[in-house]
Amino acid sequence: MAGLPPQDPLSFPAMGATHAAGASALALDTCRLIGANPSGPVGARLIEACDHLPPGAALASGAERDALVARLIDGATNRETYFFRDRRQLGLMASLLGDWATAHPGTTLALWSAGCATGEEAYSLAITLRRQGRNVSVLGTDISRSALAVAREAVYRTGPMSPCRQVGMEDDADLPLTGDGRRCVADPIRAVVRFAEHNILKTPPAPLFFDAVVCRNVLIYMDDTARRMAFTALAAAVRPGGLLLLGPGDSAPPTDPQSFGFAPLFRDGTGLFVKGSVDDRPTGR
Hints:
With about 280 residues, the chain is α/β, with parallel strands linked by helices. The protein has helices at about 15-35, 40-50, 60-75, 85-105, 120-130, 145-155, 185-190, 225-235; strands spanning about 110-115, 135-140, 155, 185, 195, 210-215, 240-245, 260-265, 270-275.
């Protein structure tokens, strides 16, 4: 979408007063629902989208309004993601969880990819751990219904800026090429990954305690209040001694992981935290 016009984004002066008020309320309500800052990029896209709604559309109610909000969220949220994003972080996570699983034979590691977008991250978690011979169950959640539909289809385009930009020949077994040049997720990987619609500002999904929660490049688009709410929910979902994986900008104030009971495992900004002290990290000791 184009940028906002140089005007108060909540005034909607070009529309009739009733429609303008409805569009403004719809934009703000949707921002609150997903925790977006109205002055930030996601909020700006929502406001602009409401500005261009047909007359009367913003005044919809009930199921019609719910469907409209879902479409607005689909259009405004950032779903830029790809397979094996930050392989080093994923590898460190897999090593730590693998040590813990070795000390607890028969364990199925439970992971939550919060804000999973179109599913590449959730599948990457499963692939990384299964390559170590681990039993794993991955839940991917997102608020965007269209993104989840892509995740469940599990077929992705290829190319330099595609979701498969980091996929190589060594990944063919888990992400085989299709006849039309795309890549699909192999059945053994799909079998251990499930997807559900969920807002990370709400109560964490079941199971209530995960061995690792991954939420990367989601919190940076939220306002301060929403970031605290989301962090509270994410922290509650990690079992004691479990791991939290964040993106580079997700742990900025006011969401310092240490204030939520997490300790950084590395000093180089890896974005890998353990619930408790460093001595509680999931090793086999």
